[in-house]
Amino acid sequence: xxxxxxxxxxxxxxxxxxxxxxxxxxxxxxxxxxxxxxxxxxxxxxxxxxxxxxxxxxxxxxxxxxxxxxxxxxxxxxxxxxxxxxxxxxxxxxxxxxxxxxxxxxxxxxxxxxxxxxxxxxxxxxxxxxxxxxxxxxxxxxxxxxxxxxxxxxxxxxxxxxxxxxxxxxxxxxxxxxxxxxxxxxxxxxxxxxxxxxxxxxxxxxxxxxxxxxxxxxxxxxxxxxxxxxxxxxxxxxxxxxxxxxxxxxxxxxxxxxxxxxxxxxxxxxxxxxxxxxxxxxxxxxxxxxxxxxxxxxxxxxxxxxxxxxxxxxxxxxxxxxxxxxxxxxxxxxxxxxxxxxxxxxxxxxxxxxxxxxxxxxxxxxxxxxxxxxxxxxxxxxxxxxxx
Length: 388
Hints:
By secondary structure, the protein is an all-alpha fold. It folds into two domains: 35-218, no CATH class; 224-388, no CATH class. 70% of the residues lie in helices and 0% in strands. It has helices spanning 8-11, 20-36, 38-64, 85-95, 99-103, 110-143, 149-175, 191-216, 227-259, 279-282, 290-293, 295-320, 327-352, 357-382. The longest helix has 34 residues, at 110-143. The two termini are 36 Å apart. Its cofactor is heme b. It is a multi-pass membrane protein. This is Cytochrome c oxidase assembly protein COX15. It is found in: Membrane.
């Protein structure tokens, strides 16, 4: 019988395994390097996240000022600001051939055109600027070996999504130069394409925000994690995911409201032009497209989703406010109903005052902030796990 003792595998020198020790040292060294760069990389990602947020807000401003169709061409390298009267005249003459000018803005002066041109021009250059900052930052991270391979692959996906988003933006604008195929025949971009463009931006924003939090807040809370807290976090995490999905759906329905200019069709509250349910919602013959194209139905759907999101935030808070969670999670839970309350108030005011530009922009921005608060709560809950 062999005497008990360390096995040959356990006592085998590291040197007998080619490069074994070096490999482990290199891995540890790479991990340490990534940790050294954690804060700069996280802040860069957070800056890109904020840039996407600013672009969403500016995009809303561009839409509300009816500036989105002012530029009739798209160039990969971008269009320089017109530097002469001849250049301005060329741009303006091209705009005069569009349905929007012929049907809505006929007789517009060059001075008025310059104003709407600025919003669209700035929106496009904000996108290109973000692309340059993201590509340059990614290249710097790779050169400094400041990120591990999985994060590098995710950055490549984010960059690809950003590039596609630029193409989707032009695809959306082009629809405004064509005969409308929706119920409303006023010259405007396709509400489907606008909603797709906005949701792609929201998706990219959400991914970048989650990644920023993952880099900046990688460790679990310092407080001891009990089994009860971990179990409660698992349940709350599922419900936070459901709430985020609901908030995202409400945001999508808001994009359809914007695309159909539905915010200006029923400007009373709590009823809609003195009706709790507009006739257009149940009018016959039934057509599923009314839920995406009919202004009254689209606004009605958005109101219902907004009420549901508002109530769900309070339900989530009251269900979990007394659970044994660390302070940051309890704060995030309290913050959620505050965000939905503010968003609901902004929505009501926007409708009552016939969608003024300032309120419309604030309402869109607050919608994204509400989604952000849900993402933040989800991230905190995902970190609350027992160590095995």
